[in-house]
Amino acid sequence: MNALITGAAGFIGQALAEFLVREEKAASILLTDVVQPTAPDSPRTSTIRCVQADLSVQRDCESLLTKDLTHVFLLHGIMSGAAEADLELGIKVNLDATRQVFDTLRKVNPGVRVIFTSTTAVYGPPPSPGYPLTEANAPSPGSSYGAQKLISETLLNDYSRRGLLDGRIVRLPTVLVRPGKPTGAASSFASGMFREPLNGQRSILPVSKELSVWICSPRTVVKNLIHARDIETERYRGGSRVVNLPGITVSIHEMLEALKATGGQEALDLVDEKIDAPTERIVKSWPAKYDTSRAAQLGFTDDGPLERTLKQYIEDYGSQKTQV
Question: What is the DSSP string of 171-231?
Answer without folding.
Answer: EE-EE----SS--S-TTHHHHHHHHHHHTT--EEE-S-TT-EEEEE-HHHHHHHHHHHHHS
